[in-house]
Amino acid sequence: MSEACKFTRLGKKIDKISSITARQLYTLTMQNRSNNYQILGKRVKRGTFHRVRSQGIDNVTKTLMTLSLLVACDVISLDDITTIIQRITSLLEEDIDPEDMFRIIRKYLKESFQ
């Protein structure tokens, strides 16, 4: 990974539909090998960059733990999670509005949990 994920362009919309912020996503997708610490084009201190990155890693870890618990408790199957992730990925590639994506996935999950 040497350039930012193209989905960081969604900005604040990511914050509404995800457990990771656009700033955190940006830091996780960038390999900062220089002293030029930037987040979404804004110069920041090294400590700020690494704090935001660490928060992103924590949020991803919590998300994965949540999914693992749901699978372990037979709330959702691993196959269902794979299907959902593939569907979200295809929606992202189609440039569907993130809030519409959220509604689509939420509806699917509500039906799955009944």
Walkthrough of the structure:
The structure is a single chain. Helix 2 (22-29) packs across helix 3. The protein folds into 2 domains: 1-73, no CATH class; 76-114. The chain has helices at residues 12-17, 22-29, 46-72, 78-93, 98-112, and strands spanning 38-39, 42-43. 63% of the residues lie in helices and 4% in strands. The longest helix is centred in the middle third of the chain and has 27 residues, at 46-72. A two-stranded antiparallel sheet has the order 1-2. It is built from 5 helices and 2 strands; from the N terminus they run ααββααα. With 114 residues, it is mainly alpha-helical.
Share of residues in strands: under 5%
Whole-angstrom Rg: 16 Å
Cross-sheet strand order for the largest sheet: 1-2
Q: Major sheet: size, sense and barrel closure?
A: 2 strands, antiparallel
- Please count the helical segments: 5
Shape field: globular
Extended strand count: 2
Given helix and strand content, the structural type is mainly alpha
Would you tell me the overall average pLDDT?
85
The helix content, as a percent range, equals 55-70%
User: In total, how many domains does the architecture comprise?
Assistant: 2
Secondary-structure element sequence?
Answer: HHEEHHH
Distance between the termini: 40 Å
Low-confidence stretches: none
Task: Characterize the quaternary organization of these chains.
Answer: single chain
